[in-house]
Amino acid sequence: MEYSSLHRQLATMKKSFFDQGFLDEQFFQIEELQDDVSPNFVEEVVTLFFKDSLRLMGNIDHALEKFPQDFDRLDSLIHQLKGSASSIGAAKMKNECTVFRDFCDKENQEGCIRSFQKVKKEHACLRQKLENYFQLLRQVGPVAKATRSGN
Amino acid sequence: MANSMLSALLVEDNAIARVVVSKLMVEQGMALEEAENGKAAVESVKGGKSYDLILMDREMPVMDGHEATKQLRLLGVKAPIVALSADTQQCHKDLFLQAGADEFIEKPLTKDKLAQILTKYGLRRGDAL
């Protein structure tokens, strides 16, 4: 039965996101908000996140090129990015943003640049994973409801 | 007698967070307004708006949550103000409470945390009747 096979694939995929630390409990919170009124709420919020985060990361890239560095501005931008990541449960991204902020606090330009590369890497990785996930979810259709990992 | 919907003000600079919290609040049957920073929240109250609950982020541009809370209390706002922050350092909690916030909740706001807040302040759906 292809349908149940797709369901299993979906469940396995989602479980791996949590097991590997890409997503945390907050993602379940967002899934639980999806209902008949907002049947695509999760994908909409995630899409909004990736659009907004790309914009922020562009601004951070631009800010990192400046000399002397404006660490207050950098901190403000990464704070925004961290907040967005946290809101959708993007755990690894959130953690890398925290590391970046620590380097900002210490006014460590090199540290900021290095940690931002990791932020971008986690962003790209999560984006690919969630794009694949939603592609599969669309194949399964609206029947799939929020479930905890592995169910 | 018509139902009067309870109203809340979400003071939060992060657009994604606003979308998520907004859905949470609407699900709880609350009418929600949003302000992108503390100054917008203060202006809203100065303009005559009143709320049954205010959710206040800490770090925001233009005016942060501590200052906004202080100013709202000076304006005579009596509604519960619940501070929201991912940073749970005691110094930030203390600053918020000294400014006049009623409590401090760690972000992100979840369904359960919101339900606890609404119950605590008598704001559950049906409490307005």
From TrEMBL, chain B:
<dbReference type="InterPro" id="IPR052048">
    <property type="entry name" value="ST_Response_Regulator"/>
</dbReference>
<keyword id="KW-0597">Phosphoprotein</keyword>
<feature type="domain" description="Response regulatory">
    <location>
        <begin position="7"/>
        <end position="122"/>
    </location>
</feature>
<feature type="modified residue" description="4-aspartylphosphate">
    <location>
        <position position="57"/>
    </location>
</feature>
<dbReference type="Pfam" id="PF00072">
    <property type="entry name" value="Response_reg"/>
</dbReference>
<dbReference type="GO" id="GO:0000160">
    <property type="term" value="P:phosphorelay signal transduction system"/>
</dbReference>
<dbReference type="InterPro" id="IPR001789">
    <property type="entry name" value="Sig_transdc_resp-reg_receiver"/>
</dbReference>
<protein>
    <recommendedName>
        <fullName>Response regulatory domain-containing protein</fullName>
    </recommendedName>
</protein>
